[in-house]
Design goal:
Molybdenum Cofactor Biosythetic Enzyme, Chain A; six-stranded mixed β-sheet; 18% helix; Molybdopterin biosynthesis moeA protein, domain 3; binds adenosine monophosphate; alpha/beta; binds magnesium ion; elongated
Length: 409
């Protein structure tokens, strides 16, 4: 059976970035850029006013003060979005709006707050330096400059910059469509009253949401009964419409656990089955005609933890992200964690991590059974006690995966 590190490595070496696609800016948030973007023009494209006020020649107002204001003749109004032909000559000014192009002859803008008067004259009460309150052409980006490199993650700021340099479409890595197949005769939809022995299908929602949260798109597949035929037809159908498959449940050694046998009958290449970890021991992984297939155990905590630790990094690699892993921190574990010397599994404890004076303190979120969904609800991190580590005494150190924070390596 593989260790956690071996299992993750086995998955990551079998997935790679999906091809590039052209997307409109408003559909590109969170995607990874697949091209270098160069500015064709200066940004801003022309010198313009940073304030509402008066475009002047700085030399004209060197001596201006509140007691002895300098009087200038106002030749024209210069709103944003048009260009006046008027030239600012000595002794004159142009009334100008923020963002409007600086008229010829002017080299500075006096803010309206430092003036008085109206109509065709203005009294300037303070001097302004040459270049004062003027945004130079190209002060943000010069024509010919590379503004974003391939591999950049498109956040709101990157999308704004792309628009500003004239791009309405960009080439980004495609986001995978991920089929989530939940199995189990006991499962009914969330809105349904329970019959004898039935439970509601929680995982189709938590896993689907984890797919969305990773930036990928879940492919809805109707939940599947525990028969070979049902499992087979669902898998074949799902495979045809997805880039990656997540199966849920039916991957243990029980009579009704058909996922493994059916997948392998269909030609999926088994990579591993079983990881030295708790929760999530029966996790499996296959590659089926080039597509990754993650076999997640059905327990609601196990499947979410396995998604977080294995599926999410793999989906990120498919999306072209360089950073695959959540921030790792060291913390004090408030209460102790018992672990036998012979226990070589990695344990993932659901914890609340909080800053305190002495640093980060992690407190487990109550009972840690793999079916206790509330233990996930309260958690903001997973404490990872490695297979080669022993018990952790109360106040001892643990490693955390910060599952509410964005990946940083
Ligand atoms: P399995 O891996 O199929 O043996 O399932 C392990 C446990 O998880 C069983 O108690 C199942 O009832 C439960 N389980 C399986 N699938 C789901 C699901 N989609 N939603 C909630 N619980 C589930
Ligand atoms: Mg089952």
């Amino acid at each position: 059976m593989l260790t956690v590190a071996e299992a993750l490595a086995a998955i990551l070496e079998r997935v790679g970035p999906l091809e590039l696609e052209e997307r409109a800016l408003d559909d590109a948030l969170g995607r990874v850029l697949g091209e270098d973007v160069t500015a064709k023009e200066d940004l801003p494209p022309f010198a313009n006013s940073a304030m509402d006020g008066f475009a002047v020649r700085a030399a004209d107002v060197v001596a201006a003060s509140a007691e002895a204001p300098v009087r200038l003749e106002v030749l024209a109004d210069q709103p944003a979005g048009s260009v006046t032909a008027v030239e600012v000559r000595p002794g004159t000014a142009v009334r100008i709006m923020t963002g409007a192009r600086l008229p010829v002859g002017a080299d500075a803008v006096v803010p309206v707050e430092h003036t008085s008067g109206s109509g065709s004259t203005v009294q300037v009460q303070r001097p302004v330096k040459p270049g004062g309150n003027v945004r130079r052409a190209g002060e943000d980006v010069h024509a010919g400059e590379a503004v974003l490199r391939s591999g950049s993650v498109l956040r709101p700021a990157e999308l704004g910059l792309l628009a500003a340099v004239g791009r309405s479409q960009v080439r980004v890595h495609r986001a995978p469509v991920v089929a989530v197949v939940t199995t189990g005769d006991e499962l009914v939809p969330a809105g349904q009253a329970l019959g004898p022995g039935q439970i509601r299908d929680a995982n189709i929602h938590s896993l689907g949401a984890q797919v969305w949260a990773a930036g990928a798109t879940p492919l809805p597949v109707p939940r599947v009964r525990d028969t070979r035929e049902a499992v087979q037809s669902a898998l074949v159908q799902a495979w045809g419409g997805c880039d990656a498959l997540v199966t849920n449940g039916g991957v243990s050694v029980g009579e009704w656990d058909h996922v493994k046998a059916v997948l392998e009958e269909l030609g999926a290449e088994p990579v591993f089955w079983g990881v030295k970890q708790k929760p999530g021991r029966p996790m499996a992984f296959w590659v089926w005609d080039g597509k990754p297939v993650f076999g997640l155990p059905g327990n609601p905590v196990s499947c979410m933890v396995c998604f977080e630790e294995y599926v999410r990094p793999a989906l990120r690699r498919m999306m072209g992200f360089g950073w695959l892993h959540r921030p790792v921190r060291r913390a004090v574990l408030a209460e102790g964690f018992r672990k036998d010397a012979a226990d070589d599994r990695t344990h993932f404890l659901r914890v609340v991590a909080a800053e305190s004076e002495g640093g980060l303190v992690a407190t487990t979120t109550g009972p840690q059974g793999s079916g206790i969904l509330t233990s996930m609800v309260r958690a903001n991190a997973l404490a990872v006690v490695g297979g080669d580590e022993g018990a952790v005494p109360a106040g001892g150190q643990v490693t955390l995966h910060m599952t509410d924070l964005p990946e940083d390596h």
